[in-house]
Amino acid sequence: VARVASSFPPAEILLIDDILSLLEYSTPEMRHTILGRVAMLPPDQLGSEHQQRIVRRWAPLLIELGEWQRAFEVLETMPDVTPDSPLGRMKFEAALLTGRYDVSYTMTNTPEPWIAVLSEIAPQHQEAALRLRDEIKTRFNGRLIGEVKTAFDSASGLIPPLESAPITDGQPEGVVGQNK
């Protein structure tokens, strides 16, 4: 499929992705490969608006596949990304997932979006969830009250128990700065 898709002009990649997303055998990895092939072409070859539309599809796949660093790097190259735009929301999430909390805070300085990301990642990405949980506690300490506190506690409860984390040197793997 990737070989056939590579024979099409870059401007047709969204149409190919539309078709792939309807096919039962299509995988996120397959779509990632096809979209990634053209997503970072120079804007003069693809057009800035078309490139942004491709990145809007590719970045969530990068995040889903755990390629958070790459997602952040790609989104950093996009011009005119505002916090309330689709690319801005993806950049916010990628920044959180890669531990760029100051970048995330400049984009969204309220705890609710941070807690939403924590809820999404907690079950599958324990290490990142633990780091994010601790950052939310520290950064928004005085603002975690009422419904926000309830949402935070609920999201934190989705993180698998520490006993299930690999233990290295008395600390669960990936937990930084916690007392032993």
Secondary-structure map:
Elements: H1 2-6, H2 13-22, H3 28-39, H4 43-46, H5 48-64, H6 68-76, H7 86-97, H8 101-107, H9 111-121, H10 126-139, H11 146-157, E1 167-168, E2 171-172
Antiparallel strand pairs: 1-2
Short description:
The longest helix has 17 residues.
Mean pLDDT: 85
Topology as a string of helices (H) and strands (E): HHHHHHHHHHHEE
Gap between N and C termini: 51 Å
What proportion strand? under 5%
Biggest sheet statistics: 2 strands, antiparallel
Q: Which word captures the global form?
A: elongated
Determine Rg (CA atoms, Å). 19 Å
Low-confidence stretches: 167-180
Fraction of residues in helices?
55-70%
- In quaternary terms, these chains amount to single chain
Spatial order of strands in the largest sheet: 1-2
Quantity of strands, as a count: 2
SS summary, helix count: 11
| Computed structural class | mainly alpha
Could you please describe the fold and organization of this structure?
- This protein is an all-alpha fold and 180 residues long.
- The protein is built from 11 helices and 2 strands, in the order H-H-H-H-H-H-H-H-H-H-H-E-E.
- The protein has helices at residues 2-6, 13-22, 28-39, 43-46, 48-64, 68-76, 86-97, 101-107, 111-121, 126-139, 146-157, and strands at residues 167-168, 171-172.
- The chain has a two-stranded antiparallel sheet.
- A hairpin with a 2-residue loop joins strand 1 (167-168) and strand 2.
- The longest helix is centred in the N-terminal third of the chain and has 17 residues, at 48-64.
- The protein is elongated and about 55 Å long.
